[in-house]
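FAQ: What does the model actually see?

It sees only this:
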Amino acid sequence: MLKKLRIRFICINMAIVTVMLAVIFGLVLHFTGNSLERESIRMMQSVGQGPAHLPRPGELQDGVRLPYFFLQVTPQGELKVGGNSEFDLSDTAFLQEIFSASYAQQAQTGVLENYNLRFYKAIGPGPQTLVFADMTSEQATLRNLMRTCVAIGIIGLAGFFVISLFLARWAVKPVDEAWNQQKQFVADASHELKTPLTVILTNSELLQSGEAKPEQRQQCADNISVMAGQMRGLVENLLDLARADNGQVQTAMALLDYSELVSDCLLPFEPVFFEKGMELKCDIAPGLFVRGSDSYLRQVVDILLDNAQKYAFPGGGVGVTLRKQGSHCLLAVANQGPTIPEEELKNIFKRFYRADKARSRDGSYGLGLSIAQRVVEEHGGRITADSRNNVNTFQVLLPLATGRKGNKT
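And it is asked to produce this:
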């Protein structure tokens, strides 16, 4: 698919450039031809006005000097010939032929294609005068210009084709990355669903066989219930991630007291930390308002708090701070736990990524931080992770809402 996309990209670019070059070169040839024609007619008009208007040596340095000759009909009906043409002007039949062919055309100026001549009929009180200019050099100029344009066009198209190859790779690179991420996402989701499905199918077959003892049947039912719950949690996380990717976060934006929201999120976790013997320290600055979705921002705080209690040392401490930082507010959730290597910090927000692969057994699928990142980005913020000296810190930076006293105005 990506190869076809690159080929289509190159074809479209080459088609656009080809049309543009054809139009540009066509206009150049058209205007050059018109310019040469105007200069030729201007010279013939000067000749047709009589000897007094003929150019003197040194004049018309910028004008066109084409081979020309003129024919005049004397009162006796004879043809008078003059000019600087290289044509054989002694051929009376030839002169009579082009004279008749010129007057057969109604226009004052025209072209005799068979003779490569342009004519001009001088209108005046004197004798009838026909001026002829040789078009050979004019046509040669246009042919040379056309060859030059074709050569430039071929070289230009070849150069742009090479450039298009690099542009195609550069333009398709985000699509390639998204495609690979999608394939990896599908593979990871399938893998995560495969294990609970296998457990559910195995236990359901054992129940249906009728060979299981009562205590085994109860165990099978419990296993099915636990695996079904894990699958439900995974599906809900996938739906949350899909909603965040589709920009549905933006549909529920409102002015929120972020300080109150974070404080409310801490309440359900206090018993969890207490049961694990962990100390929870909070420092929440009051009166910080943001514009966002209440449910999604609560979900971000819940994810960070749940992550902190899962990966903290037994009996370790967790600290939550919320403060104003310039035109933003900064939420930091830190826990005492094993230092996360730098390489894992780069991947920690990737979907289905887990530093501890065994965490899927307790309902952790590596989607929480990905969901948090998407939600924060949809709110115009940024989430980062830092780990040093057995302290892991996740920071969420969100813009303060405008129009509130004490906040950004």
